[in-house]
Amino acid sequence: MTDKPTTSLTIRRPDDWHLHLRDGAMLRAVLPETARHFGRAIIMPNLMPPVVTAADASAYRARIMAALPADMSFTPLMTLYLTEDTDPADVAAAHANGIATAVKLYPAGATTNSASGVRDFEKVRPVLEKMAEIGMPLCIHGEVTHSDVDIFDREAVFIDKILKPIRKKNPDLRIVMEHVTTLDAVDYVRDQPKNLAATITTHHLIINRNHILAGGIRPHYYCLPVAKREQHRVALVQAAVSGDKRFFLGTDSAPHTDPNKLQACGCAGVFSASNTMSCLAEVFEAADALDKLEAFTSLNGPRFYGLSASDEAMTLTRGEPVTYPSHIATGDGPVTVFDPGFPLHWRVAD
Ligand code: DOR
Ligand code: ZN
Q1: What is the distance in A from the centroid of ligand 2 to the CA of 19?
Q2: Is residue 141 within 6 Å of ligand 1 at its C-beta?
Q3: 34, 263, 275, 334: which could form a disulfide with 327 (CB 3.0–4.6 Å)?
Q4: Integer angstrom CA distances of residue 207 from 289, 310, 341
């Protein structure tokens, strides 16, 4: 006798622990794509200009809530963009008042709108010490940016050259290594018993660097950190489906219009807000680990951030392949939705 395949799965409503919502017309178009499924999200602060102060975050949160359709529920968890001028007292006040959940560290030049990021890590030491004291997490884009470091090695070099020293100086600082893409990062997080977790994106569980470059260049798969070799993708899947509490979903869904992606120097970012839950169910099913999906999308993240898991439920059902629009329309132009390259059988029930 064979076990009947699972055709329905009910989990707590998921959260997205790393999301780009942008602003203005783009925000209005992409926010419902996330709020349809996700209850909360950690909102990235890399606007132009960036969200640096508590006042900036409070104003941005108000714009997000104003853009939320009246029939949807969603809680944005705001982050502050760490600069060399960030004031530790402003950060502490933003945390105490519930305006900011975390601080985001971009090494200067690492990615989209990161020019105001950190060059000299000594300069942000007082902020990091204050955050360790008050228990406020630091979200890190973990890539070095030196032109002499190969782009495929930038995450591994960051761990050795930057992350390890930061953790040595601030063992009490709670850190999320965001959008990890390598076996090196997975191993490092697994080795650390305290105060370190990692988010994994949907697309990095599905694509490797061949998907971007073999048989033609596919700009819609280009993001940062760039997808690595297959062995790294496999390590990410193993971490995600393991149930290990230190790994959780951060989609890094990052909309750019097609004209901005499809040009000689195209923007980095994959937009996956619309179909992420269907993609993840497919990945977890293929790994025979559907029972671990809830931990990855709905339990481990709130646990690390000291929040309760959602008390709402989401049901996914398996059936004929479900299709999503290939693009969403925005006032700035069309945005292409992530194409996993395989049929999606799991649909989120209404
Ligand atoms: O691919 C990416 N896009 N990686 C990032 O770190 C930033 C993001 C964006 O803002 O477009
Ligand atoms: Zn991001």
Answers
A1: 6
A2: yes
A3: 334
A4: 19, 29, 9
pTM above 0.90, yes or no: yes
CA atoms within 13 A on the CB side of 101: 21
Q: What is the pLDDT of residues 116-156, one digit of tens each?
A: 788 888 899 999 999 999 999 999 999 998 899 999 999 99
Residue 121 CB burial class (10 angstroms; 0-12, 13-18, ≥19)? middle
Fold of 8-348: TIM Barrel (3.20.20)
Is 268 close to ligand 1, i.e. is its CB under 6 Å away?
A: yes
Annotated catalytic, 187?
Answer: no
Indicate which atom in ligand 1 lies nearest the CA of residue 268: 1
Would you give the distance in Å from CA 225 to the centre of its chain? 11
Catalytic choice (15, 56, 244, 252): 252
Which ligand is the nearest neighbour of the Cα of 19? 2
